[in-house]
Records
---
Amino acid sequence: MLDAAAADTKAQQVTLQVVIAEGAKPMRESVTFNIARVAPGGRLEPVDTKIGAPLKIALPQGRYQVEASYGDTSVTSTFDVAGKALTHRISLNAGWAHLRVIPHRGALPLTSAIDWEVLTYGRDATGQRHRVAAVKSPNPRVVLPAGHYVVQAKTRDSLAKHTIEITAGHTYKYTLDLNAGAVAFSAVRGGGGPTIEETVDWQVFKASDASLSKPVTTRSAASGRFWLREGRYIVLARQGQWNGRANFEVRSGNERSISVELK
């Protein structure tokens, strides 16, 4: 660390500014700066880490590298400190996206916690996308470098995907539609017995999953209300040695109740 830089007679005042895009005003945000001195041979010597833009710091003469990080965007650039004060401006070339989920068309946005993943739009040589950002929130605001991305929103019972575009300096609002309906399950004893009040283990599968090996969602409760994407499903219910099964269909925006008989 070069904590004595301000006392160095050759130290100069350096102002590091960050803009969201070229032509934008300097930001006054919690940007993280990681500053390193570029030593002979290109070796980096850590100098300091500071939070808050713009940043004013005194540095001895020499070449430096700074990494500016804001949200899920990081940009690295170099600058030279010579015989006078310097202002160095860094463009993040990034934009904002506000994300939210509705269960079906015409419904209000969900307010419960949602697991969001932002993935690269392009795939690597093995055909895989890579995670760029992840956040748990009903309606997050993310900062991303300009480009295209695939966004996944995972609720307790369903998953929605959408392709988004980020343009430097702009804010976009994206609403993902689960295209889902609500299903309320309950379990009863075989032979016309009463509704079971004890905990039941529920597993829901797509009807196309012939081996019933990949549950869409699971839950342990006496009863449950599930938001499932439109389609055909199979539900398995188990309580002790008692088991039951039912086939059902979900339509977007509809609600239905299903009673599963355990035998």
Note: The longest strand covers residues 180-189.
---
Amino acid sequence: MWRHTDPASLRTWLRARLDQGWELLPLLAALITPQQFPFPLLDNDTWAGLDAMFTHDDLYNRLTPHLNHSPDTPPPTDPHQTNILQALRDRRPDPHQTTPDTP
């Protein structure tokens, strides 16, 4: 609800919590409902909600070690967290694509 009424304040509050030690991946696992086939884990509504709560750029910046399989970052043991990371990888914009219409 908060993300619909005051996303800027929510974003600020969440960033402060993350900067104080909250872990983003477990938080995402609590916020995102496990996948129910045939529906995608990150449907368009969930994707928009994540952008309102965190911004997509902030999500990708904070999760880069997980998303890029950094050797210094162990993979999650929770399958839901693993699925979230894969869904974020699947949604990650292509750095060479300048617009949605550019192949």
Note: The chain has six helices and no strands.
---
Amino acid sequence: MLPPAHEVSAESLADMVCEMEAAVVENLQPAVQHYRQLDVGDLWLETLKEEDRPPWDASSTLRILSSHRSTYWHIIPRALEAEVKSLERFFGARAGGRALSLHALASNASSLLDLLMAFSTAKPSSDPPTSDPSDIPDYISIDQASSALHAGVQRIKGLLDTLPPA
């Protein structure tokens, strides 16, 4: 459980970032994987460099979004592209041990919520899959992806509710 907003310590901030990372991995990654699988079918793993293959951490998941723009153009509005890159830098800086401010956490949590919302409100593609889902390794269905996204939206809303007002 996260602490009340008026008791945000450095340890609590670190816990909140871990919660955000978990939301990317557990809630956003299934959707990223689903749409990539739809886009390239059973070749989806072969189109990735070895270091870009799942399982992904938070930063890698966001890097996949940035580097495979053609897959996600219909989901991520152009205005949100900069936020995706900012989130990738945020998680990368955390791995580098940089200090964290409450403002940075709140801003990036809000960006993550925007990204989860963009995916959760995306219209499923009307194009038929390029391959039979049973032929796709580790296939993620739209129902699995949608369920994970919905849980992620609630998760990040809950985190934002614990932060003091800006």
Note: The chain has one domain: 8-162.
---
Amino acid sequence: MQFSAFSETSVISYEDGQIRLRVSSVAEARIAIKELKIKKKELSLLKRELAAQQKELRSAHTQAVRARGPMMRGGGSFGKVIRAMQSISRNSTRASVANSLVPVEDEKVNIDRDMRGLESLILQLGNFITKNG
């Protein structure tokens, strides 16, 4: 997950996939908490956008399922072949929808992990303020 740039006067930096804090006073800790909360809100917004994207993908598939006709009935051995082809087609469509959802779900998992990391940093800074304030 890439974070947008922190402010130039920030006590927070993002290097090598890690968030680094340089806090030496209670005032700096409070500033850091505010910035981390803003980053958390950014991630939350991104996660909501991804959820909307998932909803659109699922909705499109649902509309296609509703629009298709029923499977063929009867027809002896010829009907069996036709039904097998219909089943293959339907399974393929279902699998393609599931495969298109995987990267979105993975990104949501990464965002959740990053949000938990931000929450942990906010708690640590809160403890720092409590001890030193």
Note: Residues 96 and 117 are 33 Å apart (CA to CA).
